[in-house]
TrEMBL record:
Protein name per UniProt: Salicylate hydroxylase
Domain FAD-binding: 12-368
Biological source species: Talaromyces proteolyticus
Family: Belongs to the paxM FAD-dependent monooxygenase family.
SUPFAM superfamilies tied to this protein: FAD-linked reductases, C-terminal domain, FAD/NAD(P)-binding domain
Keywords: FAD, Flavoprotein, Monooxygenase, Oxidoreductase
InterPro entries documented for this protein: FAD-bd, FAD-dep_Monooxygenase_BioMet, FAD/NAD-bd_sf
Keyword Phosphoprotein among UniProt keywords: no
One term of GO molecular function: FAD binding
Length: 456
């Protein structure tokens, strides 16, 4: 082990607790920054199963920077966001993504979770690529961590010592509890059942081929009710991933877990007697119907302690209604990759983790709050929040809403440079152009500057 306060860049031995999307992402970022990375996964299979994963430009940009082979994830490139009338299925709000890549430099990808995970896992572990390939150890469930000396103890009796420990172990994080966080949470007012539909099956039955739209599609959500259907196409459009929300009073799944026996299709259909018959027909042939437990977490006061930090759902679990959960984990990974690279890391792990918290926690907390609002008002959702001329448009706070400009215009390099300059007592050279990573001249759809909103 290198002395903890050696000045100048040094190679770290990093332990990542959790081998999901966030864990693989940070392994990629840190191996490329020059470090030795070991991933510890508690299960015998490190992949994640189930549903679709949204990866907007603010996540996709890092996949490209890390030279991940995105095509191996078999994504759908989204072209629209469509909100449909609950009963008729007619579009009531559409946000076009036709100029999305031109505006933000990267496309909006929709992946199947298993394919995305396999794509990231290959990039983290493969011999080719920048840096030393990460190692993956399964059947290693974290039991305890010596936060001063960096020693992880596993339930199998083994121990491992690291210079830096990243807790990427998800919503039920063990690392979170070890660093002293006991989340305040409550069950969401809505429940969710997820199901997968094969496009070929729907077409064979004469149902609408939604895959042709290359769109993230919603039914409902405009009336302040909890009933909402979300359709995500993935696997090149061959698979349609449906998230089906309804009031928790009509079905409470807070004590059930994903991966158990499938729920009967009748249980799903019973929630939606008045739903548009086309999408109802899709749900009627749904497979792998699984409950998704939804909890609302209050923001955490910190995400680092000692030699450990939290990443993704372990550090800022959020409702799914902004489709930003994976992107926030990827951004976390990118921040660590920058802070520990040869241009930024000066040997003090604790100092770098302090900057990580300062950079990441406010942004992730704002998305977390916005996701909770979008649960019952789809106009709060990024994209639809820009459709101010829509007759159904209504948001809680026009100046406080989350927008596509704020999410995709963000420059993490500039944000980190700004924080570093402030800590060194130096002037940030681009202070007239950026504030907290946001261009000061970036305008919202209503003409307001993003930075002006942030200062309120």
């Amino acid at each position: 082990m290198t002395p903890p306060h050696a000045y100048g860049w040094r190679r770290l031995n990093v332990g990542v607790v959790g081998g999901g999307i966030g864990g693989m992402s940070v392994a990629i970022a840190l191996r490329r920054a020059g470090h030795e990375v070991t991933i510890y996964e508690r299960n015998d299979f490190a992949g994640e199963v189930g549903a679709s994963v949204s990866c907007a430009a603010n996540g996709t940009r890092w996949l490209h920077e890390w030279e991940v082979d995105v095509a191996k994830g078999d994504p759908v490139v989204l072209r629209k966001l469509i909100n449909r009338d609950w009963k008729t299925g007619e579009p009531v709000s559409v946000y076009s993504l036709d100029d999305y890549e031109e505006r933000w430099g990267y496309v909006y990808n929709m992946f199947h979770r298993q394919y995305m995970h396999a794509m990231l896992k290959e990039s983290a572990l493969e011999e080719k690529g920048k840096g030393t390939p990460a190692k993956l150890l399964v059947h290693h469930q974290c039991k305890d961590i010596d936060l001063v000396n960096g020693v992880i103890t596993f339930t199998n009796g083994e121990t491992a010592q690291h210079d830096l420990i990243v807790g990427a172990d998800g919503i039920g994080s063990a690392v979170r509890n070890i660093i002293g966080l006991n989340p305040e949470k409550r069950p969401s007012e809505s429940s969710c059942l997820h199901t997968n539909v094969l496009t070929a099956d729907a077409v064979r039955l004469g149902l609408v081929d939604y895959s042709q739209n290359s769109a993230l599609e919603y039914w409902g959500g405009q009336e302040g009710k909890w009933d909402k259907i979300v359709l995500s196409p993935c696997n090149g459009g061959r698979l349609l991933s449906y998230y089906c929300f309804f009031p928790r009073s009509q079905g409470d799944y807070t004590n059930q877990t994903w991966g158990t026996e499938d729920r009967p299709v009748e249980e799903l259909l019973a929630q939606y007697p008045e739903l548009d018959r086309q999408v109802f027909g899709h749900l009627s042939i749904g497979k792998e119907i699984q409950p998704w437990r939804l909890w609302v977490h209050e923001p955490y006061p910190y995400i680092t302690r000692g030699l450990a930090c939290l990443l993704g759902d372990a550090g800022h679990p959020m409702m799914p209604h902004q489709s930003q959960g994976a992107c926030m984990a990827i951004e976390d990974a990118a921040a660590l990759g920058i802070l520990f690279d040869k241009d930024h890391f000066m040997g003090d792990v604790n100092e770098s983790l302090s900057i990580y918290q300062e950079v990441r926690l406010p942004r992730a907390t704002k998305v977390q709050s916005a996701a909770a609002k979008a649960a019952y008002n789809i106009n709060e959702r990024i994209g639809f929040s820009s459709n101010t001329d829509n007759k159904l448009y209504n948001v809680e706070d026009e100046k406080g809403k989350l927008t596509i400009e704020e999410m995709n215009g963000y420059d993490m390099y500039k944000h980190i440079d700004e924080v570093l300059a402030r800590r060194k007592g130096q002037s940030f050279k681009e202070k007239e152009k950026f504030q907290d990573g946001i261009p000061v001249d970036l305008k919202l759809p209503n003409g307001t500057l993003v930075v002006e909103v942030a200062r309120l």
